[in-house]
Amino acid sequence: MKHPGPVKKKFELTPPQILVLGFSAIILLGTMLLMLPFSSADGHPTPFLDALFTATSATCVTGLVVVDTGLHWSLFGKIIIILMIQVGGLGFMTMSTLFAFVLKKRISLKERLILQEAMNQGSMEGIVRLIRKVIVYSLTIELIAAILFSIRWSFDLGLARGIGFGLFHAISLFNNAGFDLFGSITGPFTSLSSYVDDALINIVSMALIVLGGIGFVVLSDLLEYKEKRRLSLHSKVVLSASGVLIALGAIVIFAFEYSNTRTLGPLTWDGKLLAAFFQSVSPRTAGANSVDIAGMRQATQFFIIILMFIGASPGSTGGGVKTTTFTTLVGAMIAMIRGKEDIVLFRYRLGQDRILKAITLTMLALFLVMAVTMLLSTTEDHHFLMILFEVTSAFGTVGLSMGLTPHLTVFGKIMIVFTMFAGRLGPLTLAYALGPKAEKELYRYPEGKITIG
User: Fold this and answer.
1) CB neighbours of 241 closer than 8 A, spacing ≥ 6?
2) Least confidently predicted of 51-60, 61-70, 95-104, 345-354
3) Who's near 301: CB < 8 A, 6+ residues apart?
4) Does any domain span residue 158?
5) Residue 113 — very low, low, confident or very high, per pLDDT cuts 50/70/90?
6) Per-residue pLDDT averaged across 176-199, rounded?
7) 268, 43 in Cβ contact below 8 A?
8) Residue 8 has what pLDDT?
């Protein structure tokens, strides 16, 4: 009797690999659509690299642009960009789940695993229910903001244009994308600078950025607080860390820029406060700005780099190493200084795996930002701080710029595209997707000791 040969393992993609391929497919499709002649305002095809850069920035909800969105793209091109922002912000798996709900299809186990990875959740329990909430909350928030924006801008731009601007910017800001159309009104790359002291525009914009950046789990917790009468540890950490960072950022920016004639100097007291808070909220990975970032003092620019590196919160539309990672590292530092073994947050002890993941994610992010910055420092003839700012903005999917992006070389554009892609998916997800499949170790080495510090 012939002995059967070895059974070949069926090739299956892991959830991280599916996420990488899914986002890549959306970017490539968007690139092809943006290259079409009728996607640009002048009717000429957009070069491949510029279309790729824009598609990556939109899908990865970054906001860095090599051409002005309001001036370069036609109505069709702008619609393609805002659709990519919506799909990229909520995640392509969330959007595919929406279609499954509409068609009344069952969500498979494999799809639940991918959703778990996409939403950065610890388990699959309640993941479909969470996705349903994500869709409802997102569309509701965007609709309310779009109405408020449309009413305000209809006075300045007319009804039709006001509604178009309102819808575009509500989706862009909630998804922390930072794309804007005001280049066609106030000049290229001006963002919201003409509304620097407009209370309604500033407050609605900041609310959108914060709601999109705290994460859908936290949003769900807040909306269900009346019933449950409690918040999860995750929500407490996210809300407290976000609040502290926004308040601290506003104080630092207000103090450093108070007398700067290129930023807060010419504004009234109220205008200074609004602008300081807006510039503090925007590094949560939103990318919109109401004052000239390039005109800020170097100390302020470096501080914004730190805020951009920290970024938003897990399971949100934003990037960065995330507020929970930053809080874990600060907690570890405090515990070590006080001689404690455990990191305790709100009377809960953090597990060792959470601490190791926070350290790993931060180190991978630092290595990525440092490596790309060093490479671009050799190819781009610009100031080091400007290059570091742009790279950190790309990694954190922020979109704030000191003006370097439109002047990047071909190599510089390619590197920023890769950095935006890595920042949106997260260094860990990208490492899991590209690395070999993890295998359980059969033995452990004896413990050794080295001197630290």
Assistant:
1) 313, 323, 324, 326, 327
2) 95-104
3) 293, 385, 389, 402
4) yes
5) low
6) 91
7) no
8) 47
Beta-carbon contacts of 169 under 8 Å, excluding residues fewer than 6 positions away, are: 149, 180, 181, 205
Residue 253 vs residues 28, 39, 199, 288, 396: alpha-carbon distances, Å: 38, 38, 18, 16, 19
End-to-end alpha carbon distance in the chain: 66
The domain tally of the chain equals 1
Enclosing domain of residue 349: 15-434
Residue carrying structure tokens 């995750």: 234
pTM over 0.85: yes
**427-to-35, 252, 418, 434, 437 alpha-carbon distances in Å:** 29, 29, 11, 10, 16
Task: Report CA-CA distances (Å) from 367 to 359, 371, 395, 427.
Answer: 12, 6, 11, 10
In the predicted model, what is the mean pLDDT of the chain? 86
Amino acid making up residue 34: L
Query: Is the distance from CB of 61 to CB of 177 less than 8 angstroms?
Result: yes
CA atoms within 13 A on the CB side of 259: 0
Give the pLDDT of residue 227.
81
Q: Is the backbone of residue 4 left (phi > 0), alpha (psi -120 to 50) or beta?
A: beta
Q: Which of 353, 407, 403, 398 is nearest to 379 (CA)?
A: 407
The answer to whether residue 447 sits within a structural domain is no
272 contacts 264 by C-beta, under 8 angstroms? yes
- Provide mean pLDDT across the span 319-331: 91
Cα 117 to Cα 428: distance, rounded to the nearest angstrom: 11
Closest CA to 313 of 404, 229, 410, 244: 244
The residues near 431 (Cβ < 8 Å, ≥ 6 apart) are: 364
User: What tokens does 440 get?
Assistant: 């359980």
Residue 145, in any domain of the structure: yes
Nearest CA to 67 among 407, 432, 451?
407
CB 242 within 8 A of CB 283: no
Under the phi-then-psi rule, with left for phi > 0, alpha for psi from -120 to 50, and beta for the rest, what region is 189? left
- Mean pLDDT, residues 334-360: 88
Q: Quick check: is 334 in a domain?
A: yes
Q: What proportion of the chain, given as a percentage, has pLDDT over 90?
A: 57
As given in the structure block, the two tokens for residue 242 are 């976000």
Task: Look at the block and give the residue holding tokens 């920016």.
Answer: 253
Other Cβ atoms less than 10 A from the Cβ of 235: the count is 20
